[in-house]
Write a structure and sequence with these properties.
Shape: globular
CATH class of the largest domain: Mainly Beta
Strand content: over 45%
Helix content: under 10%
Number of domains: 2
Structural class: mainly beta
Radius of gyration: 23 Å
Strand order of the largest sheet: 1-2-3-4-5-6-7-8-9-10-11-12-13-14-15
Number of strands: 24
CATH superfamily of the largest domain: monomeric porin ompg
């Protein structure tokens, strides 16, 4: 039976990001110190690589990461994902993802896992939306193979910099020893569990914080549940330094073969090569006739720029060359509008003079209120 894992980690990470031909790549290398009860502290190496790319209504992402410590304590993961937004339906987004992981951890054994999932996002309003999804995984741990799956649904609502979320997951679990509290109940075949979760995220200037709580209940008297909560605070004083602190408890994830864990983590990240960010400003001008306004986007520099947002149907619109850089004007209707800008085929980002919010897909966008 796998034991519970308690980890205290302090990490120092060097990070580099660079946009190349419409892509954004992230490379992170660092060191961490891991502490577990009844075992000596371990120094670990951590590494991660991420790639984001997209064209039009289709986007792709790939991530790889690993942690290596003494005494064969190690973990590695590879994740690939794709997302599609139909033309004229910016509120509808379909995502699919696949992952593969190998692990050799104290208290939970060694092995590998593979997962495949799909999620459908729907956001009929600027301030509210939700998703439904399904995920299946196969885990081989300590010589035993199991199949596990989950059906998920969630909803979110946002007001300015505060986002509330709530969801329900139904788990179909073969790996009972991983999920049930010791001593493991005598369940044969597949057991069902339900996860009820809620959370709040607050973003203000260069600060962000998040709290999430989960209650797991078994669908039978033998299938035991549990409770967990996790808090995170992050601060980025400038483009070169960021701090993050997280603590709490995570329930076991049978789809990926991850055991229940308690953690406290302090992370210092130095961004050695921050992306060059030419000045981007957005302003509103009163329309000569009718309602609405004229949105003016200005970008300094020699590299061509383009804009996308709710007023373009999220299709990239190129800006025109001027003697001082690039500029574009767009007629926008009254109400809430969202916008991002891309320079030189790099990553989409938020103009400096606009408030930032996370959209229904987790990406940062600029917010404009048109009177």
């Amino acid at each position: 039976m796998p034991g519970r894992v308690a980890v205290l980690a302090t990490a120092f990470v060097l990070s580099a990001r660079t946009p190349v031909a419409g892509q954004q790549a992230t490379i992170e290398l660092g060191a961490a110190r891991l502490r577990q009860p009844s075992s000596p502290s371990r120094d670990a190496l951590v590494a991660a690589f991420g790639l984001r790319t997209g064209r039009g209504r289709l986007a792709f992402a790939a991530d790889a990461g690993g942690t290596i410590a003494r005494d064969s304590v190690a973990a590695a993961q590879l994740v690939g994902a794709a997302a599609f937004v139909p033309r004229g339906f910016s509120w509808w987004r379909t995502e699919s993802a696949a992952s593969f992981a190998r692990f050799d951890l104290l208290g939970s054994g060694s092995g590998r896992s593979a997962t495949l999932g799909m999620r459908q996002h729907i956001a009929p309003r600027e301030w509210a939306g939700g998703w439904v999804g399904a995920e299946a995984g196969r885990t081989h741990r300590s010589g035993v193979s199991t199949n596990n799956a989950t059906l998920s649904s969630a909803a979110w609502a946002r007001y300015r910099g505060v986002t509330l979320t709530g969801g329900v997951n139904q788990l179909f679990v073969d790996d009972i020893a991983l999920v049930a509290a010791p001593p493991a109940p005598p369940i044969f075949g597949t057991a069902r569990f339900y996860d009820y979760s809620g959370g709040v995220e607050v973003r203000y200037a260069r600060w962000s914080g998040e709290y999430r709580a989960t209650r797991r209940e078994g669908a039978s008297m033998q299938a035991r549940g549990g409770r967990a909560s996790l808090a995170r605070v992050a601060w980025r004083p400038d483009e070169h330094v960021s701090f993050e602190f997280a603590f709490g408890k995570q329930l076991a994830d049978p789809v990926r073969g991850a055991p229940e864990s308690k953690l406290a983590m302090l992370l210092l990240r130095l961004h050695l090569i921050p992306i060059s960010t030419p000045a981007v400003t957005v302003s509103l001008q009163r329309a000569a006739t009718g309602s609405g306004a004229i949105l003016v986007v200005r970008v300094k520099g020699d590299r061509p720029a383009e804009v996308a947002g709710t007023f373009t149907g999220w299709r990239p619109a190129p800006l025109a060359r001027t003697k001082n850089g690039w500029e574009g004007s767009f007629i926008v209707a009254p109400g809430t509008q969202r916008i991002v800008v891309r320079v030189g085929g790099g990553a989409w980002r938020v103009p400096e003079n606009l408030p930032r919010v996370r959209d229904e897909f987790g990406s940062e966008v600029g917010l404009i209120v048109v009177p």
